[in-house]
Amino acid sequence: QWFVLQQLARYGGNLGAASGSAMVVEVSSGDILAAADWPTYDPNNFSEVPQSRLRAAGFSSSFEPGSTLKSMTLAALIDQGLTYSEELHEVPATYEIPGGRYIRNAGGAAAGQLTTAGILSHSSNTGTVELAQRIDLTTLYRYYQKFGFGSATDVGFLGEQDGYLPDPNEADSITRLTQTFGQGISSTTAQMAGAYQALANGGVRLPLRLVQGCDPANGDFVEAPRAAGVPVVSEQTANEVIRILETVPLTGTLQTRVDVPGYRVAAKTGTAEIAENGEYGDERMISIAGIVPADNPQYVVVVQFVKPQTNRFSYAAAPAFDAIVTQVVKHFRVEPSSPRGSLPPLNW
């Protein structure tokens, strides 16, 4: 907990961010091992601290997640048999939506001759939207629900938010498209950690747990009860999405920013515009969610920074993520990864 908070303070300060949150979750149990928020406060002097710093933002603040949600969209499509990693696509640079508006990609690599794996790895908005036309909106909504979006976690933290998951029968024509790449939907750090825990756990989402148990008056430890796991996607689907996500730190802007020697890491970055007073402005929320080791998932790490100023691109969250992942594998003595096998092609 201390180490994670130090990384938020270090890298959040470098970015000039307004705030940051990070969470570490054990895959096999759903236990939250670290849940840090920055800026923080001195509990010995909390009466003089701004009210905004006293809440647990990882549970009580929800934001549009951006591209980290694409992993869930693609998982739903693969699970329904509507696409596969090596499928070939001609991905446009822009996608016209009602009212003469357009959905665009953040970079040139996110368009052109991409495979399905390439659409996720290169984070193509237009490719994601085109693929998502294959799935019924109600079916996609149910997948998002099973991943844990739209309702608070089982932690039951005071002030925890449900986030926002638009009803498929009420969503407007634009939100129906933009939600597939993480805009028009909102989530907390905890919800995103839970969603990636489901992928890492063979497609079964375990309820997150913050308190392991308690010692009553007689001194006997009593473990906190657990709810049953929620099957979200098949184990084959979960493994395939992780296989795709393993390409992300090996290409593009993460190549020099996420590198944990001896360990294979699967990750996805996200950048989302922040809506204020009903309008999108220049402020952003940047994030990265990942799984380590990719070949034997044991831990999920999620890092988010709100309103960074010196760098508003999602890869700017990667150094904090890299530092936390490196500490996790050392602290818990995680066995190094096996040699990497073949990964799906991204282009054709």
In which order are the strands of the major sheet placed?
2-1-13-12-11
Sum up the overall morphology in one term.
globular
- Contiguous low-pLDDT stretches (5 residues minimum) are none
Rg computed from alpha carbons, rounded to a whole number of angstroms: 19 Å
Describe this entry's structure for a reader:
This protein is α+β, with helices and mostly antiparallel strands and 348 residues long. Helix content is 27%, strand content 21%. The protein is built from ten helices and 13 strands. The chain has helices at residues 2-15, 57-60, 70-79, 116-121, 125-132, 137-147, 175-178, 189-200, 235-245, 318-331, and strands spanning 19-26, 32-38, 88-91, 94-97, 101-104, 112-115, 204-205, 213-214, 222-223, 230-231, 266-276, 279-292, 299-306. The chain has a five-stranded antiparallel β-sheet, sandwiched between helices. Strand 4 and strand 5 form a beta hairpin. The longest helix is centred in the first third of the chain and has 14 residues, at 2-15. The chain is globular. It starts with a helix and ends in a 17-residue tail after the last helix.
